[in-house]
Amino acid sequence: MAGSPLPRRAPPGPAARASPSGAALHPAAIRPRHAVDPGRAASAPMTAPPVQLPATAAASGRRTGLILAACCVSQFMTVLDASVVNVALPVIAEELGFSRDGLQWVNSAYTIAVCGFLLLGGRLADLYGQRRMFLCGIALFTAASAVGGLADDPGLLIAARAFQGLGAAVMTPATLAVLGTTFTRPAERARAYGAWGAASGAAGAVGVLVGGVIAQWFSWRWSLLINVPIGLALLAAVRWVVPAAPGRDRVRLDVAGAATVTLGLMALVYGIAESPAYGWGDPRIAGSLIASAVLLGTFLALQARPGRQPLVPLGIFRNRTVSAANLVAFFSIAALFSTFYFLTLMLQQVLGYSPLRTGLSYLPLSLGIAAGGFGIAPHLPRTGPRPVLLGGLSMAACGLLWLSAAGPDATFAADLLGPTLLLGVGMGAVINATTNAATHGLPAHQAGLASGLLNTTRQLGSALGLVVLATVAGSRISHGLASGEGTVDAYSAGYGLALSTAALFTAAALPAALAVPVRRGSRPSRGTGHKLSA
């Protein structure tokens, strides 16, 4: 069945070009290869910072401020790079000679590398030192950005994006471990986590804006080359202000566990992320999912064997608070990053916004995320994460339902400003509270592991959430077109239904939030504080 054309009201900008041909019933019909794809921002790391860590050096005043700034800038950079090149994909394809199928790997290489190596990156920070791995991650990310920005061959650009993802996977857990060793007082730590969470969420939202500006006024290469001066400045700053923390070199790395979990996660993310394009029955998708099941099953069996030093001590999952925080993260990030994708399509294909205007429309959402993360920080040490999670999830669900009602005649002031602010404030609070709860009761030497675990959960949630919402929206669009509904109205209804489904994802996180303790000083949840092996 031939694919239906996109609404003609969309501007001729690169992010609004027609999707590849395909059946309207298929989710790929609403996933244009050359469209702005903020859903890919899900690949970006959003890890939990550590708790209960001793300070390694007396750092105060200006030094702690510089440490916080370095951690937030690095996080902003890695999240931004997940989506900033999307607007320029048509230009990249023309200049470097990409095929349509090959072009998707500019994003997929980054996504798969981040998710596959993140758990290992967190464990490396625990074993070999946070500062050391932070510097290694920055150096690798910066070098890969330079190679990608200068690439004149499709294969070289894809390889550079994969190494960017590897650098991000090493850098991010170490970054949050550094914050934990620097900010030891609960109130200070909550504010630091709020700043980090605001940087994460805001970068995901403003990636569209930055990409639009670069695509319109500069070369696509600057979407990668801009990381080089920032990365060099970060290297100098981290070497200067971050004190060295001892690693645990006497503990051997679980090589078999690292290999099986990394390959298993990469296969799983590939299968989920590419299923809308190829279908679940395609041998590539089915084969990757089967391989993932075998590899991850082998990994769990290896970790459960007695007498070994596992990569992931399975006792971590007996901590009910940690498990609940990961469930909240799964559903909330599935909703948030899927919203980035469908809101962008709605703005461009239904309301006719240009890429640059679309990016500017994300400013209230970005500011809301920052306000929610910072605003709740002073209260977290007193209340604990649970009431913050319940309130933030409820606000986000209401914002999504409100946003889903916007139709073809919507205006920014009346129909978009309010719900995006509400969604942003709610999600900002949830990100901060989740990062506080995610390492509840864990020892200091598992800080990076807990960060990597939470980030991996978020990657999987965002990837699976986008697939589910794409299926829902594609079905509604096809039904509307088949029944004679106008093209703009059909797409508007499909995207609105996707946003309503995102609200259901947010609501699904509420029961898990109830398992998180009310106060930090209250009696720990059952399972908290288990002694875990290294």
From TrEMBL:
SUPFAM superfamilies: MFS general substrate transporter (SSF103473)
Domain of life of the organism encoding this protein: Bacteria
Gene Ontology CC entries for this record: plasma membrane
Keywords, in A-Z order: Antibiotic resistance, Cell membrane, Membrane, Transmembrane, Transmembrane helix, Transport
Spans traversing the lipid bilayer: 66-93, 105-121, 133-151, 163-183, 195-218, 224-242, 254-273, 285-304, 324-347, 359-376, 388-405, 417-439, 460-477, 497-516
InterPro entries per the UniProt record, alphabetical: EmrB-like (IPR004638), MFS (IPR011701), MFS_dom (IPR020846), MFS_trans_sf (IPR036259)
Cellular compartment(s): Cell membrane
Region (Disordered): 1-23
Domain Major facilitator superfamily (MFS) profile: from-to ranges: 67-520
Membrane topology: Multi-pass membrane protein
The keyword 4Fe-4S appears for this protein: no
GO biological process annotation, one example: response to antibiotic
PANTHER family per record: BLR6921 PROTEIN, MAJOR FACILITATOR SUPERFAMILY MULTIDRUG TRANSPORTER MFSC
Protein name: Major facilitator superfamily (MFS) profile domain-containing protein
Higher taxonomy: Bacteria, Bacillati, Actinomycetota, Actinomycetes, Kitasatosporales
